[in-house]
């Protein structure tokens, strides 16, 4: 089994999130990650090093692997690509993350002021749209350039699994930008990247994206997810928003003993209505996986009986000597 936590490099070469992970206070996070990684195979003997130095993309792959295990989807690691090839069902999944733009603040440098300052939400959505589009288009091009010729990929649904680490507040923005990018139900048609470059909305309506069967997405598969699942009894405040039946807003503020969240809470699956190889609707049909299905122009979504998790923020209270 991989040893994720034994540093392979000097501390100044380790990713800030990994440095935090190996601290004495985060033993519960390490416990959860050991469970996520159980059965994961490092095919090119680079995963641990990349986990310690670049972190977020590896974190996302471990989360996805844990999700597949929870759904009893066995992964065949004998193929070097795409990232996840299902063994017993027709499904291939390519993982990707959106990183921060060059010169912008990385997500690991967030502060309380970054998360609470008044911001133009439409501007934040536009910034997010650009990061999401770039990531999805890159993986769509990779499929057309390489994956489409692989025998173990041909004819199977091709899913891109995306996590957004583009901004310090990305975990607060939910899936509004992704809905606009994929479906453009508001019929805006385009948006401006950096106020000058026009990029398309509704990319599931574009012929070049017919190869993409669906997009998996989560804005909350973050450190806070593992805090919710871990065994630590430290003083944490969980602030979350769930939406029941698409309209009822449920605001939650709870300590660790009272707060409840599942592994898959916050996970979205967006189906492409024009896919050449559609993803079966029942493949991810679980109460805590929210699915978007555009059928004859009407958007249909599945709904968690307790409300779908849209946002979650975790604050740890530090003991002080007086």
Q: Widest sheet: strand order?
A: 1-2-3-6-9-10-11
Average pLDDT over all residues: 91
**Coarse morphology:** globular
Q: Total number of β-strand segments?
A: 12
Order of helices and strands: HHHHEEHHEHEEEHEEEEEE
Rounded to an integer in angstroms, the radius of gyration calculated over CA atoms is: 19 Å
Q: SS-based structural class?
A: alpha/beta
Explain what the structure shows.
It contains 8 helices and 12 strands. It has one domain (11-234, 263-306). The longest helix has 25 residues, at 121-145. A hairpin with a 2-residue loop joins β10 (289-295) and β11 (298-301). The mean pLDDT is 91. With 322 residues, it is α/β, with parallel strands linked by helices. The strands form 3 sheets. It has a 7-stranded mixed beta sheet with strand order 1-2-3-6-9-10-11, with helices on both faces. It has a 3-stranded antiparallel beta sheet with strand order 8-7-12, covered by helices on one side. α6 (121-145) crosses α7 (176-183). It has helices spanning 16-21, 27-37, 47-53, 56-70, 112-116, 121-145, 176-183, 223-229; strands at 84-85, 92-98, 158-164, 190-193, 197-200, 214-218, 236-244, 248-255, 267-271, 289-295, 298-301, 308-316.
């Amino acid at each position: 089994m991989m040893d994720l936590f034994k540093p392979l490099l000097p501390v100044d070469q380790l990713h800030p999130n990994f440095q935090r992970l190996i601290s004495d206070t985060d033993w519960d996070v390490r416990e959860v990650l050991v469970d996520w990684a159980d059965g994961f195979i490092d095919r090119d003997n680079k995963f641990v090093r990349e986990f310690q130095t670049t972190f977020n993309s590896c974190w996302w792959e471990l989360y996805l692997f844990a999700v597949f295990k929870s759904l009893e989807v066995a992964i065949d690691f004998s193929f070097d690509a795409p990232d996840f090839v299902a063994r017993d069902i027709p499904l291939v999944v390519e993982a990707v993350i959106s990183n921060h733009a060059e010169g912008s603040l990385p997500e690991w440098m967030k502060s309380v002021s970054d998360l609470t300052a008044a911001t133009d939400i439409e501007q934040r959505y536009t910034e997010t749209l650009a990061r999401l589009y770039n990531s999805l288009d890159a993986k769509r091009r990779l499929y057309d350039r390489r994956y489409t010729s692989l025998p173990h990929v041909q004819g199977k649904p091709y899913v891109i699994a995306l996590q957004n680490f583009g901004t310090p507040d990305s975990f607060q923005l939910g899936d509004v930008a992704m809905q606009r990018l994929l479906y453009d139900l508001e019929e805006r048609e385009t948006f401006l990247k950096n106020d000058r470059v026009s990029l398309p909305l509704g990319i599931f309506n574009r012929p070049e994206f017919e190869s993409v069967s669906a997009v998996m997405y989560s804005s909350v598969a973050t450190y806070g997810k593992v805090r919710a699942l871990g065994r630590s009894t430290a003083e944490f405040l969980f602030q979350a928003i769930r939406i029941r039946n698409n309209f009822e807003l449920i605001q939650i503020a709870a300590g660790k003993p009272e707060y409840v969240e599942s592994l898959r809470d916050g996970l979205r699956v967006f189906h492409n209505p024009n896919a050449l190889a559609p993803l079966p609707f029942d493949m991810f049909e679980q109460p805590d996986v929210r699915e978007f299905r555009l059928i004859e122009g009407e958007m249909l979504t599945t709904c968690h009986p307790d409300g779908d998790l849209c946002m979650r923020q975790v604050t740890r209270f530090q003991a002080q000597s007086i």
